[in-house]
Write a structure and sequence with these properties.
By secondary structure, the chain is an all-alpha fold. It is built from 11 helices and 2 strands, in the order αααααααααααββ. The radius of gyration is 28 Å and the shape is globular.
């Protein structure tokens, strides 16, 4: 009797176990589908943001080089760029709600690829095919490597998915790995800030490390806020949890300070250096924060982790090669701009405000300098004539400015 009862019990449990096994592949396929949706949203968002920034930059240069009395916010081109900018930011923001943090962050390489291509399109000079390929061979190789790295990131990215509920986020927030990570990050951030403010260590690595540490907290809070909003839309309201508003405040605060340090870096260094070094440091810090807070790589096998790391390295190398070939800015230009002459009226005297370049943006505009568009904006030059004096005791100035009369 006991043997028959045990056999019947095993027969009754067999369909249940089979049903559990059959559910697992469906869950995995749905997880990969969410990864694909999040990756596509991130790629679309970064691509649109790059186009929007370059479109606004182009409208500013056109306005500054013409006699159009309108302000920048009265042009259709600028408003079109603003609309695309908002659309791209919404795409990137929503991507964090679908895919893991460690997968979304490295996809910002799409902005660098798009900016390199747009920068080449903006060049108005005519090049021979041999000269063109010789000058931009590093950019082409870098774009290819960045595309390969992006493919590896999407294919072997982490597949951990968790509902962004208030209980789950609170549990991650008070976990000992994240508390230890936060302690180390606060100490490193304070040391870097001390050397930057007190010791005047204005090195690009120091400034961009500050940006990367702040950015790691920004993306952690962005994923929490975006995930809780999506869960609330699905029917499980999460907006009444205090952790949602804590994460929202931290997201806004870290984003503001991050933009401040980026603006300071853009005043000291070239945009191509900021793009390459900032991408590498910010991506590394964000992946570390995502792996510590959201446990992105829990349950992943060694092969997937190694291939994901290889994809990151290839993307880093591609971004470095793309920005390596950019034209460096000249520290001194042998001309005097007309709006810099005393007594000359410029466009600001007419009440026309030209929006400055968005160098503090989290994405990248065209990496080409404005010197490549001479027909759009060319600063006026002053004629310089050497003057010789007969008296040896009087020192003559090396040049004099010709003054034109009204008749001339």
């Amino acid at each position: 009797m006991e043997g028959g009862n045990s056999a019947n019990l095993q027969l009754q449990q067999l369909p249940l176990a089979t049903a559990v096994v059959s559910v697992q592949p469906h869950t995995d396929s749905f997880s990969y589908k969410e990864n694909l949706i999040g990756a596509l949203l991130a790629i679309f968002g970064h691509l649109v943001i790059s186009i929007a920034l370059n479109l606004q930059k182009y409208s500013h240069i056109r306005l500054a080089g013409s006699k159009d009395p309108r302000a920048y916010f009265k042009t259709k081109t600028w408003w079109c760029g603003l609309f695309l900018l908002v659309l791209g930011e919404l795409g990137v923001f929503s991507s964090y709600a679908f895919a893991p943090l460690s997968l979304i962050v490295p996809l910002s390489a799409v902005s660098v690829i798009a900016s390199a291509i747009i920068g080449i399109i903006f060049i108005k000079e005519k090049w021979k095919p041999k000269d063109f390929l010789r000058r931009y061979v590093l950019s082409f190789v870098g774009c290819g490597l960045a595309i390969v790295g992006t493919y590896l990131l999407i294919t072997f990215g982490p597949n951990s998915h968790e509902k962004m509920t208030g209980e789950n986020i609170t549990r991650h927030l008070v976990s000992w790995p994240f508390l230890l990570y936060m302690l180390v990050e606060i100490i490193v951030f304070c040391l870097l800030l001390y050397f930057y403010k007190e010791k005047n260590a204005n090195y690009i690595v120091v400034i961009l490390l500050l940006v990367a540490l702040l950015g790691s907290m920004t993306v952690v809070t962005v994923k929490a806020v975006a995930g809780m909003i999506v869960v609330s839309i699905q029917g499980n309201l999460q907006l009444d949890y205090p952790i949602f508003y804590i994460m929202l405040v931290c997201m806004i605060a870290t984003a503001i300070f991050q933009a401040t340090f980026l603006a300071q870096a853009s005043q000291l260094y070239d945009s191509s250096q900021i793009a390459s070094i900032g991408y590498i440091l910010s991506t590394t810090a964000a992946i570390t924060a995502g792996a510590t807070f959201y446990l992105d790589f829990t349950g992943e096998d060694v092969l997937h982790i190694c291939m994901f790391a290889l994809g990151c390295l290839i993307a880093f190398l591609g971004v470095f090669l793309i920005t390596r070939n950019r034209k460096k800015s000249v520290p001194f230009e042998p001309y005097i701009s007309m709006d810099a002459m005393p007594g000359m009226q410029n466009m600001h005297d007419k009440g026309i405000a030209v929006q400055p370049d968005l160098k503090a943006s989290f994405s990248y505009g065209a990496l080409e300098n404005n010197d490549n568009m001479p027909e759009i904006y060319t600063p006026a030059t002053l004629p310089i004539v050497q003057e010789q004096h007969g008296s040896k005791g009087v020192s003559a100035p090396p040049y004099r400015v010709l003054e034109h009369s009204k008749k001339e």
